[in-house]
Amino acid sequence: MDRTEALAQEERKRLGSQAPSYELIYDKRLDGLEEEIREIKKMLSLIVDRIGDISEETTITVRELSLSEAKIEIENYFLENNDEEIGYEELVETLRISPEIVVEACNELANEGKIG
Fold it and tell me: Which pTM does this prediction carry?
C-alpha cells in the first residue's frame, strides 16, 4: 500500500461512514475527463475533414484586368443578377478577378451609387 492509499484509509477510519470514497471521486473525475477527450477528438476530426475539403477546392486563376475594366465587368454582373446581394468571393470566383481589384472596384462603384 502506498502512502496516498494509507492516508486515505486512515481518513476513512477517522471519519467512519461519512468518509467520501476517494476512488469514486477520482473515477468520476476520470470519467469526465475521458468524455471531454472524446468530444475534443470528435471536434478535431471535423476540423481535419474540413481542412481536407478546403485543400481539395479548385484554385482560381485570376485574369489581369485594370481597375476600370473590372468595374465594368462587376457593374454588368450586378445588372445581370438584378442587383442581388453579391459577395466579393462570388465576384472573384465567377469573374476571375483578383480579390484586391474586386474590393477596390466595388468600393468605387458603391461610392458612385452604381451598386448597393
Answer: 0.51
CA distance 72 to 83: 14
Contact in structure between 77 and 94 (CB atoms under 8 Å)? yes
Alpha-carbon span 22 to 7, nearest angstrom: 11
Would you list the domain boundaries of the chain?
3-56, 67-111
Give yes or no for a contact between 92 and 102, defined as CB atoms under 8 angstroms apart: yes
Q: With beta carbons less than 8 A apart as the criterion, state whether 88 and 103 touch.
A: yes
The predicted-structure confidence for 7-28, as pLDDT tens digits, reads as follows: 777 777 776 655 556 666 777 7
- Which amino acid is located at 28 in the chain? K
Q: Locate 97 and state its grid cell.
A: 478577378
Instruction: Name the nearest CA neighbour of 105 among 75, 76, 78.
Output: 75
